[in-house]
Structure prediction request, 197 residues.
Amino acid sequence: MCAQPQPRRQDSSPLSAGRTVLDDGDIARALTRISHEILERNKGARDLVLLGIPSRGVPLARRMGERIAGVEGYDVPVGSLDVTMYRDDLRLKPARTLLPTEIPPGGVDGKVVVLVDDVLFSGRTIRAALDALNDVGRPSAVRLAVLVDRGHRELPIRADFVGKNLPTSLVERVRLRIAEMDGIDEVTIEDAQGGAQ
Prediction:
């Protein structure tokens, strides 16, 4: 009797409610591909700085930095850029926790800065990141890398490097869980139940 092929894992544990669209292997491959694309576009790792947008963009940026170092043999500076005070919805949701901004010692002036975020949606977080970056220096170029682009842009912002384009409806929520923070790597689509992402 032949063994039946196993369906793709659909984790229904309390930690993972919703439909899994990327598992740990998918995320690892996407980050490796994005890292290679960054190197190709930049023609190497020289003058490159990765800045993760808290919270989950930061571990993604660190992982990409490790992959780039593995290819180039050069440690790319990795930091974080908190955008909380630059958001245009502070008056709507005033209670936000400030997260650290950590700019690498060499700064960003004259560098190619790659902003790293988990999910690109309306574009408002990236607009806030560009404003925040303007206050810490003047890069020679700014690029955007995201693990997931779910569409529904409200601003003219486009990612340069995308792990997965994931068309969604506005009543769905795309959630990234990452091992450094959640103990698991996965991207799920969930019912937003009227809440906005």
Observations:
- The radius of gyration is 17 Å.
- The helical segments are 24-42, 57-72, 124-136, 179-182.
- Confidence is low (pLDDT under 50) at residues 1-16.
- The first helix runs from residue 24 to 42.
